[in-house]
Write a structure and sequence with these properties.
Largest sheet: 12 strands, antiparallel
Number of strands: 43
Distance between the termini: 7 Å
Helix content: 10-25%
Number of helices: 19
Mean pLDDT: 94
Strand content: 25-35%
Shape: globular
Length: about 950
């Protein structure tokens, strides 16, 4: 029986959840501490933003060098001097250059020299103390040593500030237009005294550009329009070292210099003064398209007359809406703060990039407009980091946003000559890191229910990119961090089935593992779309990881020469790998763990090696900083390894190890994130771990099981499904699963089928302080692995004879609902307005059935209000006598999954109420049937 069939059986009987012992957290936004991660190289920013917001209004700290930010997020906890508050940031990046656009500095004193001449930030900056600082979801405030109070908040595309100036000092405001984090190639500022506005633009990019000249370029222009509630008493501008009092316009970028950093003393901006001793409110709209759009965004989201406090309250409410999708009960106050701050960081990126009118600047630098069912274009894709668990978590709670992100990535590829760049920033590709992560990410989004994008188009584009060798793939430009090819040395991948040591990638062995995961993702999307030839081809390619596994070198992945020989290799070294060692990367075969363990010699050997990986010789934990032979749970190559005990018959060790990481490496302090948060990638690991669940492999939606940190967790999916995790005796000292029931049915499997994430259900954990070594130890309990001999569940309805009630039009017939596509436009569906509406599929013979998936109007890009509201799923052996398997009422999801656990030849959808608003047209884009 397939995994999907197992899930269907588990969901068939739903138990009544136990009564709650305590109330769930009511105001999770109030628990968020944005200072978590701002120390210990977490590189997060503490400022104000909204979920997936275009604006991140946050301080820019300085250590006395205007050409270097204190940290890539603009802020570092131990750098207690601020040179401005900028409108854009990225959270947790390792490279500098992630925005920092348009720093505003409230200054207590006259502006009598050029701010660009203040190269050590001695004059135009202010100290502060952490005692005078606070940050939570949607707001940030700090009291500066200059006597100025700064309060920040935001909407999706606008920022709001309240500057409170001290009496007796000149109340100045500097707009450092050209001073993006790693400089600019152009900038322009205009002050309009009559209308109390400051507007302009900066042209920048240069992410990681100081590492390699290939990145030393601009690829976006940010426009801004700031409006003030107080009149200007004086104005001025500057360019480079020249101050120009009384002027109202300036231009000039900092340039990127010969080392990729801005040139000291270069740049332009403007300043104004206000009457002393008053509070000044500022509203700022931004756009990556035009000045007109920046102003329109401001008028739409933060119009004249909107008070600062109302914007702040709305931002907090927006965060509560998202954070309450994962509802926790119990735990300590510190655990609750750590959890909700991690969830907050997981929902910062990717960012909305299109304006309120739908326009955005594409990777081709042309202006585009979102269309079809896409609601917004998203930007800032930290691919190598995000594909492992962050996009899965995001899509779990917001399938609609996940679908828009997948469409955004496809749009970027289409605008970028078919290249799926691995690290995109604003409207540019930076090529940073390794592998082909979008090919793992997009199938993962689809697997977790983010199906509202052109999946067929995405698959076709990915297959082309993975099979067509380009000149960039043959180039070493940008080596090593920023190799320009999407698939470096793709020619070798296709001919030798691994990336050799002297190839174009940043580490041949690591690239081989990454490309194997990417190809597995492609195979799974192809399977879901009914393209079985492509599925088989890419599933075979997904096993190429084995070609860099060297049993003669202790059983580690390692670089391999072009001629097939093995160079000398140190398993503790990073040769052949990016940001990790051979020992750390060897575990990174998530789609075929069984195959990896078999090569190692079986479960016992794999378990011993995992034990050694996570412990020192004296038995103490080795979770970070213990050397290349040990785990580094502060970075992505190691974070999947604790879950692998589930495959080896020792799930109690997964439970123990995951809980140890959660309890010791994460906290509610500024240093509470163990490494760079990588746009929420590491924080998403914590959220999954605290829930006791983790995605099995990119492209799949099975969940590996550990144990939840809280007595009760309820996940309210955006598609209407609910996942409830009850563990009444959960505590820091009780990580061990004694028993588990899924919807009231006991199970010994330390994993959940895809249907659980899709349809929801209840997990009932019994936890204890000592391991139950028998639970989950049988070979039959192990999670699935995917080799060439295994396949994803097959859609039994694909291409089968279908019939139905009279269709709306001649091209909207029943066969369109079993053609494997939702991407052929609004006519690629079955539609009926008949008095009795139904759709029926003949599977050809009687089969045991596990689940039925129905893709509604929203899945095809139409109005989600047209999704079928009420319907019955019925099954028959002969097409005449029918039994009802599922009654669905009040559906709003674009795609709904229904466990049936019956047998039959015919499957029928009987529509009871067509749409949410009472209209009569029933639209079904696809019906899928699985065993």
């Amino acid at each position: 029986m397939s995994a999907l069939g197992v899930g269907a059986l588990l969901i068939a009987s739903v138990a009544t959840p136990p009564a709650r012992a305590a109330a769930a957290v009511a105001d999770p936004a109030g628990l968020v501490s944005t200072l978590i991660g701002s120390s210990n190289h977490g590189e997060t920013f503490p400022g104000a933003t909204t979920p997936f917001g275009m604006v991140q209004f946050s301080p820019e700290n300085t250590r006395g060098d205007q050409t270097r930010a204190a940290a890539p997020g603009g802020y570092r906890y131990d750098a207690t001097r601020i040179r401005g508050f900028a409108l854009t940031h990225m959270s947790g990046t390792g490279c500098a250059g992630g925005y920092g656009d348009i720093p505003f500095l409230p200054h207590a004193g006259a502006v009598d020299t050029s701010p660009s001449a203040d190269t050590t930030d001695a004059k135009y900056a202010s100290d502060f103390a952490h005692a005078d600082e606070s940050g939570t979801a949607g707001q940030y405030q700090v009291g500066l040593a200059s006597g100025i109070g700064a309060e920040l908040t935001a909407t999706t595309r606008t920022a709001a500030a309240r500057w409170t100036y001290p009496a007796g000092k000149t109340a100045s405001l500097l707009v450092r237009t050209s001073n993006s984090e790693v400089g600019s190639s152009a900038a322009q500022t205009t002050v309009d005294t009559a209308n109390r506005t400051i507007s302009g633009s900066v042209t920048s990019g240069n992410f990681c550009g100081y590492i390699n000249a290939i990145g030393r370029r601009s690829y976006y222009t940010l426009h801004f329009h700031a409006v003030f509630d107080q009149p200007f008493t004086s104005t001025g501008t500057w360019q480079d070292g020249t101050l120009r009092p009384g002027t109202t316009s300036a231009s000039g970028g900092t340039t990127y210099g010969t080392n990729g950093y801005p040139v000291a003393g270069r740049g332009s901006g403007g300043y104004v003064t206000f009457a002393a001793g008053q509070a000044v409110t500022m509203r700022v709209g931004i756009s990556f398209v035009s000045q007109a759009n920046a102003q329109a965004n401001l008028e739409a989201e933060n119009p004249s007359g909107t008070g600062f406090d109302s914007v702040r309250q709305a931002a907090r409410a927006a965060w509560n809406t998202e954070l309450q999708r994962v509802e926790i009960t119990g735990g300590t106050a510190a655990q609750q703060t750590t959890f909700y701050t991690a969830l907050y960081h997981s929902l910062l990126h990717p960012n909305v990039f299109s304006d309120t009118n739908g326009q955005y600047t594409g990777m081709d630098q042309a202006v585009h407009t979102v269309s079809g069912g896409q609601r917004a274009q998203y930007a800032n894709f930290s691919g190598w980091d995000a594909y492992r668990s962050q996009l899965q978590l995001l899509t779990l709670v917001r399938p609609d946003v996940g679908g828009d992100i997948a469409q955004s990535l496809l749009n970027q590829a289409n605008q970028n000559n078919g290249v799926w760049d691995r690290w995109t920033h604003a409207a540019g590709g930076t090529h940073v890191m390794t592998g082909d992560p979008a090919h793992a990410a997009v199938p993962s989004i689809y697997a977790f229910g983010g199906t509202g994008f052109d999946a067929q188009g995405a698959l076709a584009s990915m297959v082309r990119a993975a099979t067509t060798v380009t000149s960039a793939d043959l180039s070493r430009d940008g080596w090593n961090v920023m190799v320009v090819g999407e698939r470096p040395s793709l020619d070798k991948w296709l001919s030798k089935h691994y990336i050799p040591a002297n190839g174009n990638a940043w580490g041949g062995a690591g690239e081989t593992l990454e490309d194997s995961v990417a190809d597995f993702g492609v195979s799974q999307l192809a399977a879901r779309l009914g393209q079985n030839t492509t599925r088989d081809e890419f599933l075979a390619r997904a096993q190429y990881w084995a070609n860099v596994y060297n049993p003669a070198n202790g059983g580690y992945a390692q670089d391999r020469n072009d001629n097939g020989t093995w160079p000398s290799s140190d398993p503790a070294g990073s040769g052949g790998f990016a940001e990790g060692s051979a020992a750390q990367y060897t575990w990174m075969v998530p789609h075929n763990v069984r195959g990896l363990f078999d090569k190692m010699g079986g479960n016992a050997t794999a378990t011993t090696r995992l034990d050694t990986f996570f412990h020192r010789a004296d038995g103490t934990w080795a979770l970070t900083g213990a050397g290349g032979l040990k785990a580094e749970m502060n970075n992505e190559p190691s974070i999947g390894a604790p879950w692998l005990y589930d495959f080896a018959g020792s799930p109690h060790k997964t439970q123990q190890t995951v809980r140890q990481v959660v309890n010791t490496l994460w906290s509610n302090a500024p240093g509470g994130i163990p490494g760079q948060d990588d746009l929420g990638a590491m924080s998403s690991w914590y959220v999954w771990a605290a829930m006791g669940l983790y995605p099995l492999a990119p492209g799949r939606a099975e969940l590996l099981v550990a144990s939840p940190l809280f007595p009760r967790i309820v996940v309210h999916r955006g598609n209407g499904a609910t996942l409830t995790l009850d563990a009444p005796n959960a505590a820091a000292a009780s990580p061990y699963v004694q028993a588990l029931a899924v919807n009231g049915v006991p199970t010994t499997k330390p994993w959940l089928p895809e249907s659980f994430a899709g349809t929801g259900g209840t997990l009932s954990f019994t936890l204890g302080t000592t391991p139950n070594t028998g639970w989950g130890s049988a070979a039959a309990d192990a999670p699935p692995s995917f080799d060439t001999g295994t396949q994803a569940p097959t859609n039994l309805a694909l291409g089968k004879p279908a019939s139905g009630s009279v269709s709306c039009n001649g091209n909207e017939t029943a066969d369109k609902a079993v053609n494997g596509s939702v991407s052929g436009g609004s006519s690629d569906k079955f539609c009926s307005t008949a008095a009795v509406k139904y759709l029926q599929v003949d599977l050809g013979r009687k089969l045991d059935l596990g689940s039925v998936v129905v893709r509604h109007a929203g899945a095809g890009g139409e109005n989600a209000a047209w999704n079928t509201r009420d319907f019955d799923v019925r099954v028959s052996d002969d097409g005449a006598t029918w039994s009802t398997a599922v009654q669905v009422r009040g559906n709003t999801a674009n795609a709904s999954t229904h466990a049936v656990s019956v047998s039959g030849r015919y499957v029928r959808i009987d529509v009871r109420a067509s749409e949410q608003n009472g209209n009569t047209a029933a639209r079904v884009y696809e019906v899928e049937v699985y065993q």
